[in-house]
From TrEMBL:
InterPro entries: IsoCit/isopropylmalate_DH_CS, IsoPropMal-DH-like_dom, Isopropylmalate_DH. The keyword Oxidoreductase applies. Pfam families: Iso_dh. It is an enzyme of class 1 (oxidoreductase). GO terms for biological process: L-leucine biosynthetic process. The lineage of its organism: Eukaryota, Viridiplantae, Streptophyta, Embryophyta, Tracheophyta. Catalyzes the oxidation of 3-carboxy-2-hydroxy-4-methylpentanoate (3-isopropylmalate) to 3-carboxy-4-methyl-2-oxopentanoate. The product decarboxylates to 4-methyl-2 oxopentanoate. The keyword Phosphoprotein does not apply. PANTHER family: 3-ISOPROPYLMALATE DEHYDROGENASE. Homodimer. Belongs to the isocitrate and isopropylmalate dehydrogenases family. The gene is LOC110751641. This is 3-isopropylmalate dehydrogenase.
Length: 404
């Protein structure tokens, strides 16, 4: 089954929605995994990548497997190199085999790419180029990044409790256009003979219209509020962005639309983040604002993302990078990748029940007090990446879906 952009799917509201799973313990032997007779089969491409990528993917794969098998779903995995790992093996950051396998699968789960080793490579040989090409190759233009402050982690936020408590927002970022891809780009010399570097922020109407529709649909199923972030007071590309957003808004009279300049949005996100429900913005502003939003939640290690196109497989990945400073030390927080696996089930495969099992298990694990270093606070239990994964597995195994 090829995944596609499910505009009618419920928006991903990770974790804070009323717990869909009861805490009743499954009595041993009463409810067994139905892996023996799977009714649904999907092919998943795993791209562990670099740094902490392989650590978090290995944990997330186990969680994905268990949640899926309970729901009678069977996965066939293919694991391929991307980023620095691919550079070392094949000399390029996105081998053709990797892209082809990704395109032919039902969903792609990525760890992270990058590291000191390849930092000085020429641009076309940087791990990051591999990731951009992957997104481009899969034509995933809509990036959904939820940022939810969990009650259990309010104190891990850098903001005051009263500011952080209850934050639940979604950043819808345009992913395949704008300044990261615009041409002309490059290096040269100006009229004074000085060296210059330049890029182009450019958007065509169809690129804005399709991301706008994703954002309006997402907002419609959340609290019905959409804030479009741009820099229309200075940039022509942003003036055009605003014009198209307002044109598409006519199709969604039930959604309350507002506009905000990006500098103000950056400020408002730390001043009063609860004012936001759904944010839609271009590639570069979305990159920056979603990282800022992540810190409100306590740790970049908690946040998943989904990148979706009009057809073909979706790309699911934590928003963090390869964290070379903690790679190989079993210190990484695997929850962002585990929650990305939940998004994969929900948005990529339409397997909502299996997704709910994972979301609930993550909440349960946090409720029990388990914390990796990035979200640790006094009185909680410090665990490593693997142990956190094992605790989530225990919760997936011991929780049963509440009767509807
Ligand atoms: N999507 C991606 O693969 C992606 C995204 C961002 C950065 N990168 C790459 O990652 C490398 C490192 O970049 P960076 O340091 O700017 O960002 P980063 O996200 O890798 O790390 C930033 C900080 O957050 C911590 N951190 C990140 N993920 C964590 C987790 N799961 N658990 C606990 N702590 C975590 C790190 O230890 C570090 O202190 C660079 O090569 C960069 O290009 C890749």
């Amino acid at each position: 089954m090829a995944a596609c952009l499910q505009l009618n799917a419920k928006p991903f509201s990770p974790l804070l929605s009323p717990n869909p799973v009861s805490t009743r313990t499954r009595k041993s032997g009463r409810i067994s995994c139905s892996a023996a007779s799977p009714s649904k089969r999907h092919t998943i491409t795993l791209l562990p990548g670099d740094g902490i990528g392989p650590e978090v993917i290995s944990v997330a794969r186990n969680v994905l497997n268990l949640a899926a098998s309970i729901e009678g779903i069977e996965f066939k995995y293919q694991e391929l190199p991307v980023g620095g790992a691919a550079l070392d093996l094949t000399g390029v950051p996105l081998p053709e085999e990797t892209l082809l396998a990704a395109k032919q699968s039902d969903a792609v789960l990525l760890g992270a790419i990058g590291g000191y080793k390849w930092d000085k490579n020429e641009k076309h040989l940087k791990p990051e180029t591999g990731l951009l090409k992957l997104r481009e190759g899969l034509k995933v233009f809509a990036n959904l990044r939820p940022a939810t402050v969990l009650p259990q982690l309010v104190d891990a936020s850098t903001l005051k409790r009263e500011v952080a408590e209850g934050v639940d927002l979604m950043v819808v970022r345009e992913l395949t256009g704008g300044i990261y891809f615009g041409k002309p780009r490059g290096f040269g010399t100006n009229e004074n003979g000085e060296e210059i570097g330049f890029n182009t922020e450019v958007y065509a109407a169809y690129e804005i219209d399709r991301i706008a529709r994703v954002a309006f649909e997402t907002a419609r199923k959340r609290k019905g509020k959409l804030c479009s972030v741009d820099k229309a007071n200075v940039l022509e590309a942003s003036m055009f962005w605003r014009k198209r957003i307002m044109a598409i808004a006519l199709e969604y009279p039930d959604v309350e639309l507002s506009h905000m300049y990006v500098d103000n949005a950056a400020m408002q996100l730390v001043r009063d983040p609860k004012q936001f429900d759904t944010i839609v913005t271009n590639n570069i502003f979305g990159d920056i604002l979603s990282d800022e939003a992540s810190m409100i939640t306590g740790s970049i290690g908690m946040l998943p993302s989904a990148s979706l196109g009009e057809s073909g497989p979706g790309l699911f990945e934590p928003i963090h990078g390869s964290a070379p400073d903690i790679a190989g030390q079993d210190k990484a927080n695997p929850l962002a990748t585990i929650l990305s696996a939940a998004m994969l089930l929900k948005y990529g495969l339409g397997e909502e029940n299996a997704a709910k099992r994972i979301e609930a298990a993550v909440l349960d694990t946090l409720n029990k007090g388990f914390r990796t270093g990035d979200i640790y606070s006094a009185g909680t239990k410090l665990v490593g990446c693997k142990e956190m994964g094992e605790e989530v597995l225990k919760s997936v195994d011991s929780l049963v879906l509440s009767p509807v």
